[in-house]
Structure formats: C-alpha cells, structure tokens
Amino acid sequence: MNGNNTPTDNVVSELLEMGFEFPIALAAIEAVGPSLYDAVDFILTGSCNVKFEPSSTQEHLNNAYGTSSREACTSKNMQRSFDSKDHMKQALITDHLSSSVKLEKSEPLGSSDTLAGGFNIAKSKCGPLHKPDMVQSSSIDYRKMLSVESSANDMTLNELPTEDLCSLKNDNSSFHSTHWSQGQGIDSKWETKVNFLLKNYFGISSLKSFQKEALEAWLAHRDCLVLAATGSGKSLCFQIPALLTGKVVVVVSPLISLMHDQCLKLSKQGVSACFLGSGQPDNSVEDKALNGKYNIVYICPETILRLIAPLRKLAETRGIALFAVDEAHCVSKWGHDFRPDYRRLSVLRKNFRTSSIRSLEHDIPVMALTATATHHAREDIIKSLHMSKETKIVITSFFRPNLRFSVCHSRTSSVSSYQRDFKELIATYSRSRIADADSKRKSIADTSDGDESSEDDVYDSNDEASSDKDNIDDGIEDNELSVDFLEDELDLQQNVDDIDVTCGEFNADHPVKDQALYNPDEVISDPVEPVEKFRVTQESLGEGTTIIYVPTRKETVRLSGHLCKCGIRSAAYHAKLPKRHLRSVHEEFHRNNLEVVVATIAFGMGIDKSNVRRIIHYGWPQSLEAYYQEAGRAGRDGKLAECTLYADLSRVPTLLPSKRDAEQAKNAVLMLSDCFRYGMATSCCRAKTLVKYFGEELISGQCFLCDVCVSGPPKLENLKDAAAIFLQVAAAQYGLIEITKCSYSDAIYSQTARQKYLERPNFNMLMDKIWERAKGFSERGKLWWRGLARMLEDKGYIREGDDLVRVSIKYPKPTELGMRFLEAKEDLYVYPEADMLLSLQNPTTSTYASEWARGWANPEIRRQRIQSLKRKRGGRKKYPRKKKVDLKTVRGRLKAKLVKKI
Ligand SMILES: Nc1ncnc2c1ncn2[C@@H]1O[C@H](COP(=O)(O)OP(=O)(O)OP(=O)(O)O)[C@@H](O)[C@H]1O
Ligand SMILES: [Mg+2]
C-alpha cells in the first residue's frame, strides 16, 4: 500500500478489494469513519447484526447493493445503522461461534484473553446425533468454557456414566487402559466391539466396507492411503482407533475451521477432542493435548512440525494409536490444493518408528485420506509422506449416484446472465417459501410481492434472446484476464479459515443412549448404491440449500446482492470479508437460515451439511479435482442433488494467478485443460468422465442422470473433409506436404508468404487460410474449428508447434499420425462438441484477415465499421470519462485511483 495514502484511502481500497462498490464504500466511511471493521459491519449488517430474515435481508441488501443502495445510504438510514453499531459489535472473540450461545449472566465472563485459551462444550440439548442441524442446535456454555480444568476433561470411555457405556466398559476394559498396546485386546471380536462403539457414539449401525479395510490395515500396523468419495465417512477410519485403544489419535488437518467443526461434532458424540492451530500457541490446551487428555488431537501441519519432541513423549506415555493425514491431496504438487507444509510431514514416519522410540512395539501407522487424488497424486502422497512399501491402498468408488451433473453455456458475471440463469432457482425458493407454515404468512406475502416486482424489475424475457446472441463470442482466444481477475486473487487458490481462534478444546458430551433415536433413513447412503434408485427420475430436488461458487470476490457480493433483491436469503463469502461475518454465514447456512451462499472456493473443505441440494459453479473451476471436491458437498443425505457448471463455452478458461514453479504451472494448465474438455463434452456421461479422471471405470457405463445421459448425444457427423482441409493447410504451412498434393485448388502460397508462416503458423492464420481457400466451410465460425482442432489434438493428429502446454491449441502442427490419416483419407465420425454446436446455432459470416484488412481502405466500409463499433460500445458498460479530479480532496484522490484501476 502506498505510503502517501491517508487512512481513509486505505480503508476504501480494502473495501474495494472486498468487492464492495465504490459509492457504498465511501458512504460507509462517511458514516462510521475510517475504520475498516466498522465500515464492513455497516455495509454488511445495516442497522442490525447479520440476520437473514427476508425483511432484514432486503434491508441489508438495500444498504449494500445497486441503485437502492444509494437511497439506503441516505444520512437517515446511515445514522440508524450507525446508532446500532455498538449493539452489533463483537464483544468477545468467541461470539462468532453461535448466535444461539447462551451466556450465563450470573457468572461474569473473563477477559477475552482468557477466552482465547480455548473452550469446553457443555452437554448437548440436541436431539439425535446424526441430525443434520445437530451441531447448530447445541448451546455453548461459556461458564464452562472459562473453567480452567473440567473434570470431564479427563473423561475416558470408561468413565462415561451412561448405561450403555458401562456395559461397554465392562466389555472392553482391557483396551481402555492407558497403556493399551496395539495388538493386545484386539481379537477376532474387534468388529463386534467396533459396531458397539459405532452405535453408541455415532448412531451408525455398521462399518462400510472401505472403513473396515482401512481399520484392518491399521490393526495390522500398516500405513494406509484411503481414497473415498466426498461425504463417504472417511473420518471414522481414524476416529475409531482412538475409541478402540484409549490412545490418542493425531489428525493433521489443513484448516482451523474444519478442525473446529470436527471437534465440535465429536464432542457431541461423546469423544473428547481439541485442535491446535498455527497461531499464537495456547499452552494450557497444548499441554493438556500433549499429556493425553483428549482422544483425538487435530493439529495443523505447521504446528505438528513444532511439536515433534513432545509428541514422541506422548507416544511413550499414553500412546499414539495413529497419525491421520486428512485431506491428503494437499501433500501433492499434483493435487489442486497444494500446501508446502504438508510435504514436510515425512517427519512423522521418521520419528515414530520402533528404531527411534524404543518402547514402541510397532511403527505408529500413518493413514492418509482424501476424496480427490489422481494416480499421479496418489504416488506423490505415498512418496512425500515416506509411507512404507507395504502401504495398503483402500479405494472406494468415487461415483456418487445421487448427483446430477450438467453443464450450461452462460456468459456469467453479466447481470442479464444472472437474470436468466438463476430464474429457476429464485422461483424454486419462492415456491417453497409460499408453501411454508401459516404463521409465516406475513413474511410470505412480503417475499412473494418482492418476487413479483423483482421479476418485473430484473427479468425481461425479450432480453433473453438478445443476450443469448451476445453470449457467443467467436473471437475466442482471449487469454487476457479481466479486471476482476487482475485484483489480488491469491487467496482464491486456498480455502479460508473463518474462525479467529488458534486452538480449542472440546470435552466429550454424552453419546447417544437411546437407540430408538437412531434413524437409518437419515444415514448417508453407500456411494456404490445401485443407480436404479435414481434412474429416469425428474423428481423435484426438494428443499435444501445451495452453494454457488464464483471465481472472484467481487462477484460473490454482486451475485448475492442480485439474489437478495429477488427475495432469496443469500450471503456472500470470500476470504477478505471479516471472520466474524464468515463464521456467521457458516452458521446461518448450517442452521438453514440461509438458502444460498455465494462464495469463492474459500467456502471450502469439510462442509459436512447433509441437505445441500445444489452446487452451482458460475465460471470455470481450475481443475476437475477441485470441481469434484466442491460438487461433492451436495447430496450428502443420499437424496438427489444437482451440480451445475455454468461457463462461457465460447471462451478458453484461464488460470487464476498464483505462485507456481514451472512444473506446477504446466500441471495447472493440464488440469484446467481437462476441466475445459469436461465442459465441452457432449457424448460421454458426466459422472463417467469424472470418475474416469480418478482412474475408475463406471460399471454401469453411465449415470442415467446427467444432462448428457438425459438428452443424449448430438447427431454423429463425419468430419473427414473438414479435418482433411485443416490438416492440409497446417501441413502446407509447415512444409510437410508437397503443395501440389493439396486437394483444394489454390492453396499455393508465394515462396515469401510461405517462408513467413513456415516457422510457426498460429490457429488464427490457419483459419484465414481455410476461409480464404475452402469456401464451402465459410459458415463455420472459428469456434467450430477450435472444437475440431481440439478433437484432432486429442486423437493425436496435431500437436502444439512450440511444444508448450495450452488449454486450447495455438500452433497446430500435424503429427505423423495426422499425416497418415490425411493420406489414408479415413472417415472421421465424431459427436460435435459444445463449442461447435454453439457456433452452428449462432452462425457468423466468417471473414479472413486479409479481406478484413482490405476493407479498411474502402471509405464506405470504414464508415460502416466505425458506426457499428460505436453502436456496440453504446450497448456496453460505459466507463467513466477521465474527468479532471481534484487531488487535494480525499474523494478526488479516491476517484483518481478508481479511474486508474478501471
Ligand atoms: N458407516 C457409516 N454408515 C452411515 N453413515 C456414515 C458411516 N460412516 C460415516 N457416516 C456419515 O457420513 C457423513 C460424512 O462423514 P465424513 O465427514 O467422515 O465424510 P468424509 O468422507 O470425510 O467427507 P469429506 O471428503 O467431505 O471430508 C457423516 O455424517 C457420518 O456420520
Ligand atoms: Mg473428511
């Protein structure tokens, strides 16, 4: 940040970076002064704390977005919001945990310093443990949170006072002693014991087969790599060993919020746990963890590297049953979420083996778990973690039979696209709200009124046709990043912690006692269920929540604003927003108070909410790994859920900026390229493509649900002639064929022209030649040829002339295989892909460069072109003219900055 900037300048730039509009940022600063924290509060919450009731949402929106934002920012409204600021201020660091938190007035709270030390969870008042909103309905007792030591802290399985657990204790006392030795007490009956634990702690009737395999590997003291679909239940594989042995299980996890949520869940299930993040260490929680007070200790990779020595001690005293590396794809440079610290976890293997700790009978096993790792990534994980040669690899099907995948063309990010693409979503939520309880009649009336007007306001069906046409961009190759992408988007490459505590402790609450509460219907279905269940179904998706992933922070704010305007309870989520807001969004989402969260990929790993019905990607994801991981957050209850990718199929996606070395950059392009091909495909089942990417063949051959399975592929075409011309032109340019052999009449170039292009003719040059010479193909736009070139490249007929890796070929050079195809004059039956179909639906008269250039010499043509350009400009966003700005005033300086940014 510039040293000359005033505090106001800095706050405004920060707000702009967060995605807020300039006038709103200014208005907020005028209202609350140059405090970033207060300004964000002011914008996001208006006159109240973040609430997502329809009325307040509307107000919140009016304050934050669009034309109404200006009205809302009148001094009266601002004053009202400002007056209530104190009311919404976060009093304590832990306030963000839950709005259902109950403060015990009789006992004053300590200072926030004390609170930062950690917190204990009181007994749950919630219902069955496996209820999706169980975590939300809990209450946190701050009195207990403040107690330095709770007797429950030391509670082990043996001491839990329920009848069931007493019987468990009697049954399994041998393996709950502090010095339980792996191998002792675990006999052939281990499965019965595990089933007992499953029922009592997790409300689950039996292990899935992959969980059983992973546990068997652990029992045999083997390292294990578990690859199982998102939401399939990988956590149990490392939670059970802690309960079975009474030893500690250390889990490496990448995010504090993820660790926090898992600890909270475990405490409800009767398992004590804590997490140790990477911030300022809290010695009391850390000490207790290292003294073996908790069954499960979650640690972020940086911290575990710091704690190797005390962990070795722990291994010798209470004992460590297992090291689990969760979200293990973070280890791999070939993965989509690489974390350098994960790579250093090989220290675990080195430091916790019999050769380095004498009292150990066996090396402490390492279990790595992930839902998304290709073959390459798997090898990398095993190698990087120094896992043993005997590592057992447990793989389950990646297939999620209840997910309906589809791809739609959309320009995205333009308001007209929002109106068209989210019309159905808005209608769905409006309908479900209208069908709500009578007691909410008033708010229903408000909402439906709002919807009607908003539809009138925002949706104009006439607009659809015109914007559809606008949507096709035959200019294709646009590798330049938009202004939005040029902002600092580095954090988009990573998930974000929406919690600002560095550690926390969670004591075991009572596990489920009443088996009658256990409802098998609510348990997630096995991922390899027969597909018949969902076959040919158009059943409604039903109620539930939606996550929309967008590529930029600005867009989270913009799209969420649009949805709110249309009456949807929606909120934005991205890494730059204050943690308190993020945590609040997280919780309101889990409580079903929010219908839609519009987020960057910061709304990340480990979102374990059962009723997410739709995952919408609004813009190209960066890899299929990331896409599948994010899509996997839908339908965890086993019911039908939808995963839709809206992308501009006429444009080649670009990589978001990030620090990458040459190898990573190459790999990132390859991953993006696979993603692009997934979007373009029209003939292969989406689910099949996705699981194949992870090395699995779909047994049923297709999912019967996705857009391709439902609509079927397009008509098969023989593109032999087009392919031949493309290859001939390319081969002639490279001098690979005798010019006289060209089948089209005048493909002969002058020697100088040939010389000029000989070195490396690019795709556009080839297009000019094709249109110039092969008149029969003039109705096929560049987009169509781009599709054909991609097919030829995939078949190995052409390759990049400069040997660089690109998402879409730039310098097509025929290969030997391509030349053989050309000579053999073979048929080429293919299904046209998405961009080819798009091009044919919106034919444009193709002009080749030389003709186009000559046009400028003709005054009449020149006049027409200039006029048409002006017309086009008129219809587009008008950028502010460079006005003279007064650099002496704050407003002037900010305006100058804004104009510069644009
Ligand atoms: N054997 C089982 N039977 C029924 N439900 C189970 C079983 N094992 C786990 N589950 C449930 O599956 C849900 C998801 O579990 P978990 O969070 O461990 O998934 P995951 O595989 O780690 O997902 P992710 O890849 O997103 O991290 C949990 O609610 C859990 O209770
Ligand atoms: Mg998990």
TrEMBL record:
Catalytic activity entry: ATP + H2O = ADP + phosphate + H(+); Couples ATP hydrolysis with the unwinding of duplex DNA by translocating in the 3'-5' direction
Gene Ontology CC: one annotated term: nucleus
Main location class? nucleus
What region holds the Helicase C-terminal domain?
A: 530-676
Subcellular localization: Nucleus
What are the recorded Gene Ontology BP terms?
Answer: DNA replication; double-strand break repair via homologous recombination
Superkingdom of the source species: Eukaryota
The protein's matches in Gene3D superfamilies, at most eight in alphabetical order, are given as: P-loop containing nucleotide triphosphate hydrolases, Winged helix-like DNA-binding domain superfamily/Winged helix DNA-binding domain
The coiled-coil regions, if any, are none
GO terms (molecular function) for this protein are: 3'-5' DNA helicase activity; ATP binding; ATP hydrolysis activity; four-way junction helicase activity; nucleic acid binding
Q: Which residues form the Helicase ATP-binding domain?
A: 215-391
Q: Which residues form the UBA domain?
A: 6-46
Check the record and name the InterPro entries matching this protein. Answer: DEAD/DEAH_box_helicase_dom, DNA_helicase_ATP-dep_RecQ, Helicase_ATP-bd, Helicase_C-like, P-loop_NTPase, RecQ_Zn-bd, UBA, WH-like_DNA-bd_sf
Q: What is its EC number?
A: 5.6.2.4
Q: Where is this region: Disordered?
A: 438-475
Question: What enzyme category does the UniProt record give?
Answer: isomerase
Q: PROSITE patterns, per this entry? A: HELICASE_ATP_BIND_1, HELICASE_CTER, UBA
Question: Keywords assigned by UniProt?
Answer: ATP-binding, Helicase, Hydrolase, Nucleotide-binding, Nucleus
Q: Which NCBIfam families match?
A: recQ_fam
Family the UniProt entry places it in: Belongs to the helicase family. RecQ subfamily.
Protein's name according to its UniProt entry: ATP-dependent DNA helicase
State the organism named in the record: Amborella trichopoda
